[in-house]
Amino acid sequence: MLGPYLDLGFQNWYSANKPIATLADLKSMKIRNSGGAGQAWRARFLGAIPNTTAWPNVPLALSQGTFDGLVSSNESLVSAKLWDSGVKFALEDHQFIAEYIPLVNQAFWDKLSPDLQKSMTDIWAQNIAAYRTNMAAAQTKARTTLEEHGVKFADPTAEPNAAERKRMVAVQDDVAKEIKISPEMVKLIMADVGASS
Questions:
Q1: CB-neighbour burial class of residue 183 (10 A; exposed 0-12, middle 13-18, buried 19+)
Q2: 196 — phi, psi (to 5°)?
Q3: How much is the pTM?
Q4: Does the structure show a pLDDT above 50 at 196?
Q5: What is the DSSP letter of 96?
Q6: Which residues contact 136 (CB under 8 A, 6 or more apart)?
Q7: CB 95 within 8 A of CB 158
Q8: Under the phi-then-psi rule, with left for phi > 0, alpha for psi from -120 to 50, and beta for the rest, what region is 3?
Q9: H/E element holding 39?
Q10: In whole angstroms, what is the distance from residue 139 CA to residue 74 CA?
């Protein structure tokens, strides 16, 4: 791993036909996500039906009603022009942020000289702050682009988000077990984010 993660951006909820102003509005909706047991669990926890459709197939699948909405980032929706596929509503709840993890194949890494290894890690360390700033700006700009194309955003207040987080944290040990995350890892993560379980 070259260094700190790169924040991709908040993963928001988007809908083609049904207005979504609260997480409760997701109930019974078929929601596409990018994969992983945790994302599927989160959809089910909120009463939605998880769907994993490959990203290249999302525009057509959405326009054909294969799923009702999706979880993604503003920038990703703009890159695919998903307003053309029917996205009309968004719920930006700031409860899930995706991360890029800068990994290098170990066999490749071992072939590099110590100077090149140092250069790679130094360049990443020197630029990660700018990368994160640029990524956040791209997400903000993407929201404006989506709004310019008629997507209506709902921004829940802190109270309902805190209530949903409390409901989720109450079962996080069960979720961790279900998706095969060790109790030790959960403790490390919670300690790192400054929260108690």
A1: exposed
A2: -115, 150
A3: 0.86
A4: no
A5: -
A6: 7, 9
A7: no
A8: left
A9: helix 37-45
A10: 6
Regarding beta strands 30-33 and 69-72, do their DSSP bridges make them parallel or antiparallel, or are they unpaired?
A: parallel
**pLDDT 10s digits, 111-140:** 999 999 999 999 999 999 999 999 999 999
Q: Provide the 3-class DSSP secondary structure of residue 53.
A: coil
Query: Could you tell me which of 184, 182, 175, 144 has the C-alpha nearest to residue 39?
Result: 175
- Residue 155 and residue 132: Cα distance in Å, rounded? 22
Residue type for 141, please? K
DSSP at 87: -
- Six-digit token pair at 11? 């993963």
Contact 72, 34 (CB under 8 A): yes
Residue type, 69: G
Q: 6 forms bridges with which residues in the sheet?
A: 100
Secondary structure percentages of the chain, helix, strand, coil, to 5? 50, 15, 30
Three-state DSSP at 40 gives helix
**DSSP 8-state code for residue 172:** H
Going by their DSSP bridges, the two strands 49-52 and 6-10 should be labelled as: unpaired
Instruction: Look up residue 63 and give its amino acid.
Output: S
Strands 97-100 and 6-10 turn out to be antiparallel
